[in-house]
């Protein structure tokens, strides 16, 4: 616009046109695509050459890169960018696909998952409604039912049984979406002025994303009840404690709203007893959501079905297929018993450009109404490809191999009298610690001792990368087996490093106390 005129300037200043570029040239794509695939394959083959965690300090990469983007295309841009990726960026990465990465729950990768991501990027649709990409919407409906059946979920959570599912980015989104749906459903009953009286419940082991979601959903900070757990109950949420907490809130004039139960907590993989919790929650009409971000993948194996005993009574269930089920980031599956509750809370009045006369009167799903975002990825394509390439039996073999390796590590720990396994191993995480003798300070010094042990283990060159939990005041080391590339030898080598560092540490401490 010209100043003060309110009209568009019909004669913008002349600019030098950029060089002509064919941005979607098939031959160029074939050439560069092969380069990228070879680069990734070489990275996987050389994974063992990298320390799992880099030895860098803040600013190491910023100091190496220019402060401004290139004004014009760089000569040999692809080759030089891949060289910089190899020489500057990869050495500064934490290598989540490393077979020696035992610190976190896995971000699992597979050939089908990675190439599925390439297909998603290449096709690049935005399936926010059925009309925006009919095949994408219907494929998602079919595949989330496939996955739900493979995980032995009740039919009431599937499209086939009146429920339904969708694919989101993370469990954080799933928790927020279901919490907003529960909030709106409750406030429709009691009135919107009561939003300040709503209370939500979880255990002190529930992932912090639940507390974050509660804040976003308008729940007062003081109305998130983190119910204490104990080692005696393996840090699982007690139905009796939940009942007491809810009754106290009702007596205070507050309104119980939502329970987030966890199957496989982050710190120790504790399993909240769904069958015991649901009847307690039902007495005050709570929405019950099960967060099985990590452990949900294990349900593909029938021998783990008992950990969700009673799941037919829950309102929603979510798991991350990208954590342990080979789907590559990001891919969270959410199922709900009553999809209408999600649509009532998150749905939008369609604008004219989103309407499609051909879809009217048909039972179609517009997935924009199931989540917070309008733009969404064609995530189902990689999940569909993965299920076809590996099959349910292939996924079971993948999970069982990690569980077997974790059991092997657990046995190695138990065979060394200096150590103890702190919590029951439910899946592929072993929580263990080095025992402190009276000579070294006993139980009072045990946490400090294990903190030092973890530092020594993670400092070992090309050694394992582990993490710690602190539950019930007990500091313990975590060994989470889950990388697609991990083999028995990596687990045995990890234990060898732990033993050697423990011996060295104990020897140093004994000398200091002589």
Automatic annotation (TrEMBL):
Provide the positions where the record notes the PTM N6-(pyridoxal phosphate)lysine.
Answer: 323
Which InterPro entries does the entry mention? Answer: Aromatic_deC (IPR010977), PyrdxlP-dep_de-COase (IPR002129), PyrdxlP-dep_Trfase (IPR015424), PyrdxlP-dep_Trfase_major (IPR015421), PyrdxlP-dep_Trfase_small (IPR015422)
User: Biological process GO terms, please?
Assistant: amino acid metabolic process; carboxylic acid metabolic process; phenol-containing compound biosynthetic process; primary amino compound biosynthetic process
Where does it sit, as one GO cellular component term? Answer: cytoplasm
A single Gene Ontology MF term assigned here is: pyridoxal phosphate binding
Q: Which domain of life is it from?
A: Eukaryota
UniProt entry keywords in alphabetical sequence: Decarboxylase, Lyase, Pyridoxal phosphate
Q: Does the keyword NAD apply?
A: no
Q: Which residues form the signal peptide?
A: none
- Gene3D superfamilies, per database record: Aspartate Aminotransferase, domain 1 (3.90.1150.10), dopa decarboxylase, N-terminal domain (1.20.1340.10), Type I PLP-dependent aspartate aminotransferase-like (Major domain) (3.40.640.10)
Q: Which cofactor does it need?
A: pyridoxal 5'-phosphate
Keyword Disulfide bond included in the entry's annotation: no
Family, according to the entry, reads as follows: Belongs to the group II decarboxylase family.
* Protein's name in the database: Tyrosine decarboxylase
Q: What is the protein's species of origin?
A: Lolium multiflorum (Italian ryegrass)
